[in-house]
Amino acid sequence: MGLHKKLIVSFAAAAIVVIGLFSWQNFSLSKEQITGARRAKIELLTEIINNGLKSLMLEGRGSEFQKFLDNLIAEDIAAIRIFTEDGRILNSTIPGEIGQRIPYKDMSVYRAHQNLTIYYQSADGKKIFSTIVLIRNDRICQRCHGGIEQIRGILDVEYSSHESETETAGSAARIAWAALLTLFCLIGSLGLLSLYLIKRPLAEIAGAIEKDDGGDQLRRLSEGRNDEIGKIAEKMAVTMADIHRNREEIDRYHADRDLHVENMASLGELAAAVAHDIKNPLAGISGALQVLAEDFPEESPRKEITREILEEIGRLDSSVKDLLLFARPPDMHLIPVDINAIIEKVRDRVAARAATLKVGLDLVPAAVPALMVDPEQLERAFLNIALHSLEAMPYGGQLRFVLRDSPETGDIEITVSDTGPGIPEEKLKDIFKPFFSSKHSGSGLGLAIARNIVEGHRGRIEVESALGKGTRYTVILPETR
Fold first, then answer.
1. Does residue 137 sit in helix, strand or coil?
2. What is the domain extent for residue 277?
3. Are residues 140 and 225 in the same domain?
4. Whole-model pTM?
C-alpha cells in the first residue's frame, strides 16, 4: 500500500472514530430533548385534565367530565382514565372500561410510581408513557364529598411513544447522514490534498530519479518550493549528482583496470617469452663454465672467478624461474594434505639459513582437518614468506609459525611472524606488488607469487607490521573446498 493510500486510510479510521463519538453524543442529547419534550407535554396535559375535573365539579357539571375527556383524545394519546384506589375505573376514553377494574399487576406499578411519569410496554407490544397523578380530597372537594377520604381517585394519562420514536429515528437518520457527508467531504478533501501535495510530487521525484540525468530534473522540481518536498528534491538532486559523478569515476576505473589487466597480460606473456629465451642460454653458459672450471687448478685465480660467475648465473636463473612462475602459474593438483606437514617441511628447509643468521625457529602446530590443496605450490608460498621474514633479520631474531583452527569462521589460519625492524606504513600497501623488495638480493616476486598461490586456493593473506616490533603474515585458508 502506497503512502497516499496509507494516509487516507489512517485519516479515515481516525475520522470515523471522532465523528462517530460526536455523532453518538449528539444523538443521545437529541433523544433526551425529544423524550423531555414528550414528558413535559404529558405533564401539561395531565395538569389540564386535573384542573378541568376540578372546575367541572365546582360548577356542578361532573356529568360532562367524560365528554371533556373524549374531546382530549388525539392520535398520540393512548388512553385517559380515572380509577379508585382499589382499581375500579370511574372514567375512561377507552370504550367499555368504565366500571371494570385495573389488573392487579398494573395496580402494583401505579402504586410504586405515584405522581411520576413511567415508561412501560403495553399488552399489545406498544411502548407507552404513563403519568399517574393522585386526585386528592382537597378542602374545596370536601364540600360535596366530605372529609373522610384523603384521595378521591387516580388520574392516569397514557401517551404513545410512536411519535417520539419517529422523531428519534428521524434525528438519528439526520445525524448519520450528516456524519457520513462530513466524513466523505473530509476524506475527499484529504485525498485531493494528498494527491496534489504528496503523491504527484513524489511520483515526479521518482520519475526524475529513474531518468538519471545527474539531478537536473530534480533541481528544477525543487525550484520555487520551500516545503519538505522541495527540500527532498534538492537533497536528492545533490545525491544523484554525486552518484552520477561516482558512476563515471567507477566506469573510468573499470576501463583503466581492464586496460591495466590487458597490459599486464601482455607484459606477462612478454616476460615469459624473454625469461624463456634467457633461461636456455644461461643453462648453456653455466655448463660451459663448469667444463672450463675443471681445467683450472684449485689454486688458480681463474677457478675462483669461475665459481663467482656460476653463483651469479645461479641467482639469475632463480630470478628467471620466479618470473616464469609469476607470469605463467602452473595448474594446481589438489589432494588432501595435513597443513602441519607442509609448515614443518618449510621450517626444515629454512633451518640452515636461519642458523646462519642466528634466527631461532618456533612451530606451534594445531589439530586441523586435512585440506584439499596443491602441497608443492603451497609449500613454495610459505617458503617465500619465511625467506622474506628471514631477510628482515640479518642480525638474528625469532621466526615463529603458528597454526590455528577457527570454527566460528570455518577457516584455518597460519601466521608467520618475525622480530625484524618492521615495514613502514607507506610501504605496507605495496608489499605484495611484483618487483617490490627492500633487499638488495632476490627478484622481488616472492610475496607476489605467494599471494597468487594463496588466492588460487581461495584464501587470502593479511599483513600487520609495527616499526621496531616486527611483521606478521596471516594466511587464511577455508576448510571447505
1. coil
2. 212-327
3. no
4. 0.45
